[in-house]
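> forwarded from #structure-qc
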């Protein structure tokens, strides 16, 4: 099998390159870690040694004045020969008392050396730098101690040449070891890559055979690992493919059952409009039985005006065609029909009922699938919407007629009389305000009803919303002599809602309470919570609502006192907006009222 030649496959070289990259990266990381660790260990050991040496030479530093310069230089030379260290004694001001490598007389002041400066603030001053005196890298350790009869600095240093040589040897050994390990790992990677790709290449060949239809092909070599599990899975898959093919007939029956259970009506016809299939929904909508429909032409069984033209348009255009049809029966239904062209649909038993030439023509024809939607209720809602538009037109007619009458009166000469002009313009302004308010409420109601499912419910502080609305309502309340009070807004009541919608709810309720409460009166708004809901309660001492009207006050354009409502500028939409907003936020609204005593509106919104 061609797939067995894995030595030159791209997968083999990709796998080998991956192994090699992993090995090389690991080797480099190990090398740098070892080199760094050795360097750190040597440096730390040298520092400890030099720190100990400062204590060993301290007695000699303390006797510096007693011994004198010649004797002290002799002792330092002896220590240098024995240890290889450079030893320096410094006075407090940084002047050199003695040095094992140089004459102190010719040496400059060492008070500014880094190690000397650090030794003043720390137990030891450590520095690694180039020495201008001996002209090579040195490691310095300095410690504050007595030098002669005063406090000075004892410094011990060691050349780093030897350390660097030792590090170079260690790095060389590490490089050699890493190289040997790398070569061995690469050889092992080559072997592992070959072992891994060989069965995969064999599986590729088997997959090609299965694609050609040879379901007897099997993977022969199955290693005892995940690749072997994959090969075994492929073998079992090949054995199950034939069995799966036999299931397709049952799947076809299952699909028919699904179609039969659909609410929408589905009808399939062949090239001559003979019914090949119709589901339960189609039989219900068309009021036909399957036995009397299958095999017959659709337009012979079903009497739907425009159906024949719909099928012809779908075949001619080759695209989905849509049309609304009226279905008679016990109750008239409006059906939205979609006709979609499909490949030829063969009617079961058509060869027995038709001549061979007719059967061949049917096989060559274009079949159609017709999907029927019952839109009767939708059209009813559209009629309701038209009625709503009529109500809106009626509400708009009165202020428009008033405005027109005032304008015509002014144009006919009344504008010359200042008191008449001012009174008429004021009435025009009132009616324009009423129109604006009505249009705003209509737009709000349309937006809420059309997008109730799209309202974004987020955590909102109910107290903040009510407090802001109440502050804006204070002015109107004071002008009417109504006392407006707020309770419970200081406690945080966080609900899941829409901030703008909650503002509109509180504003409508407070505006109604103030408008329908004669002065002197009281309006109170209270924010509280139950176990699961945040609550807004608006209570007034106003005119109240009759019991018979309570169940209808949330309807659009419904007014208890139409004359008073229009006088106050009401549109009859405020409470309808409140109800729709509350429902969109999964809440409840309730009202208790008594005529002459006042009303209480209670809105509940789910807590966060």
């Amino acid at each position: 099998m061609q797939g067995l030649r894995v030595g030159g496959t791209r997968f083999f070289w990709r796998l080998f390159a991956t192994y090699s990259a992993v090995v090389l990266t690991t080797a480099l990381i190990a090398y740098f870690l070892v080199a760094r660790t050795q360097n750190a260990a040597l440096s730390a050991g040298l520092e400890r040694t030099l720190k100990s040496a400062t204590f060993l030479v301290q007695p000699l530093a303390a006797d510096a004045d007693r011994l004198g310069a010649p004797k002290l230089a002799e002792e330092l030379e002896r220590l240098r020969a024995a240890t290889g260290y450079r030893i320096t004694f410094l006075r407090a001001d940084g002047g050199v008392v003695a040095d094992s490598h140089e004459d102190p007389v010719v040496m400059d002041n060492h008070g500014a050396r880094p190690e000397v400066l650090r030794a003043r603030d720390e137990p030891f001053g450590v520095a690694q730098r180039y020495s201008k005196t001996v002209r090579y890298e040195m490691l310095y350790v300095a410690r504050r101690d007595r030098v002669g009869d005063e406090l000075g600095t004892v410094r011990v240093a060691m050349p780093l040449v030897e350390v660097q040589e030792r590090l170079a040897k260690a790095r060389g050994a590490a490089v050699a070891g890493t190289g040997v390990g790398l070569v061995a790992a690469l050889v092992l990677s080559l072997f592992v890559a070959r072992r891994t790709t060989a069965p995969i290449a064999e599986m590729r060949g088997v997959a090609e055979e299965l694609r050609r239809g040879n379901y007897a092909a099997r993977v022969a070599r199955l290693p005892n690992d995940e690749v072997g599990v994959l090969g075994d899975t492929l073998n079992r898959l090949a054995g199950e493919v034939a069995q799966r093919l036999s299931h397709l007939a049952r799947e076809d029956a299952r699909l028919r059952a699904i179609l039969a259970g659909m609410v929408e009506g589905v009808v399939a016809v062949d090239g001559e409009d003979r019914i090949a299939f119709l589901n339960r929904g189609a039989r219900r909508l068309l009021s036909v039985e399957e036995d009397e429909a299958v095999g017959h032409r659709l337009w012979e069984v079903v009497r739907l005006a425009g159906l024949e033209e719909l099928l012809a348009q779908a075949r001619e255009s080759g695209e989905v065609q849509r049309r609304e049809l009226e279905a008679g029966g016990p109750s008239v239904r409006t059906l939205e029909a979609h006709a979609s062209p499909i490949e030829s649909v063969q009617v079961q038993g058509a060869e027995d009922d038709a001549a061979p030439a007719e059967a061949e023509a049917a096989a060559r024809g274009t079949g159609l699938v017709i999907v029927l939607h019952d839109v009767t209720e939708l059209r009813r809602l559209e009629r309701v919407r038209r009625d709503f538009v009529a109500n809106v037109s009626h509400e708009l007619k009165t202020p428009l007629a008033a405005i027109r009458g005032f304008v015509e009166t002014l144009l006919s000469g009344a504008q010359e009389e200042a008191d008449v002009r001012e009174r008429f313009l004021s009435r025009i302004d009132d009616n324009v305000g009423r129109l604006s308010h009505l249009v705003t409420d209509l737009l709000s109601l349309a937006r809420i009803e059309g997008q109730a499912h799209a309202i974004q419910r987020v955590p909102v502080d109910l107290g903040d919303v009510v407090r802001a609305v109440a502050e804006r309502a204070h002015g109107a309340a004071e002008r009417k002599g109504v006392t407006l009070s707020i309770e419970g807004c200081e406690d945080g009541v966080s609900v899941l809602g829409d901030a703008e919608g909650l503002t509109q709810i509180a504003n409508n309720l407070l505006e109604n309470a103030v408008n329908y409460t004669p002065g002197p009166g009281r309006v109170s708004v209270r924010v509280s919570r139950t176990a699961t809901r945040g609550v807004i309660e608006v209570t007034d001492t106003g005119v109240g609502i009759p019991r018979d009207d309570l169940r209808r006050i949330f309807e659009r354009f419904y007014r208890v006192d139409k004359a008073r409502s229009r006088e106050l500028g009401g549109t009859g939409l405020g409470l309808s907006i409140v109800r729709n907003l509350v429902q969109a936020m999964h809440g409840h609204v309730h009202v208790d009222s008594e005529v002459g005593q006042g009303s209480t509106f209670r809105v509940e919104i789910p807590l966060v």
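QC bot note: Residues 1-8, 349-364 have pLDDT under 50 and may be disordered. The two ends are 66 Å apart (CA to CA).
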